Amino acid sequence: MPPSETSRTSVEIASQPGTWRRAAESLALFADALPRRGERVAVVGCGTSWFMALAYANLREEGGHGETDAFAASEFPHGRAYDRVLAITRSGTTTEVLDLLTRVKGVIPTGAITADPETPVMTAADAVAVLDFADEQSVVQTRFATTVLALLRAHLEAENALPAGVRPLERAALDAERALAEPLEPAVCAAEQFTFLGTGWTYGLALEAGLKMREAAGAWTEAYPAMEYRHGPISITGPGRVAWLFGPAPQGLAEDIARVGGLHAAASGDQADALDPLADLVRAQRLAVHLAEARGYDPDRPRNLTRSVILDHASA
């Protein structure tokens, strides 16, 4: 299914293999903003950025680069000691992120990754990586978020700290090209409900896939760690409903989905020809746009959302 010519979101989705490669090629320019080996790091963000923080935190810690926690910026534990705080903010204006960076400035070294160099985050953080080539016109985040994770993955790869089984970024970019070219399954497009599942770093991707479907298409979606699926979420699965797994499947999971009549939509996993999980997220992004357009929604301007959440402290 080619990208819709009328949807900016689809065009931005289609550009991701290129922005991932550019992030990796620009890695040396952003070194000051990124964690050093051995540092105890907190990664923060809001919404999609928080989910990318969750994915990166698992990758970094599992790869032996250093202890890493991820928090929604509003939930940062100020009593806990860290060597660095890394903030992810596309707009550079999100209130909770700026408040956190301001509060810890001069106490904890801070870095930020943003898309806009003309925003307050440039002075709120000690060092900033600007991925302006991955910025978006759409309200819904797609390529900025994945390009941030691509940059952080490339950094771990350059420092020989990718966890076992995580592929080089170039393989992920090649898989994303496949995910853009291959048609979406008709049965998946026709489903009424979606449960996204992940393990380790791919749990963050599952959360993001669910959010993307809700934001763009108003779809009924849920997201869980894959091993939690049997502890309740399986009750919602049935005919006309999808369980979508990012990464390898726990033993017996596919059989359990089939037993209750659900559709197991897994394109990433252990097989050599399976998509990289980050490329599989591209497939979910495409599905979100498809469903939005099929339902008469504008995927570029979802209801109730703005590009950045800026709070009025006087009324908060």
UniProtKB/TrEMBL annotation:
It comes from the Bacteria. Its EC number is 3.5.-.-. It is an enzyme of class 3 (hydrolase). PROSITE patterns: SIS. InterPro entries: GlmS/AgaS_SIS (IPR035466), GlmS/FrlB_SIS (IPR035490), SIS_dom (IPR001347), SIS_dom_sf (IPR046348). Keywords: Hydrolase, Repeat. Gene3D superfamilies: Glucose-6-phosphate isomerase like protein, domain 1. CDD domains: SIS_GlmS_GlmD_1, SIS_GlmS_GlmD_2. GO terms for molecular function: carbohydrate derivative binding; hydrolase activity. Residues 31-166 form the SIS domain. GO terms for biological process: carbohydrate derivative metabolic process. PANTHER family: GLUCOSAMINE--FRUCTOSE-6-PHOSPHATE AMINOTRANSFERASE, ISOMERIZING. This is SIS domain-containing protein.
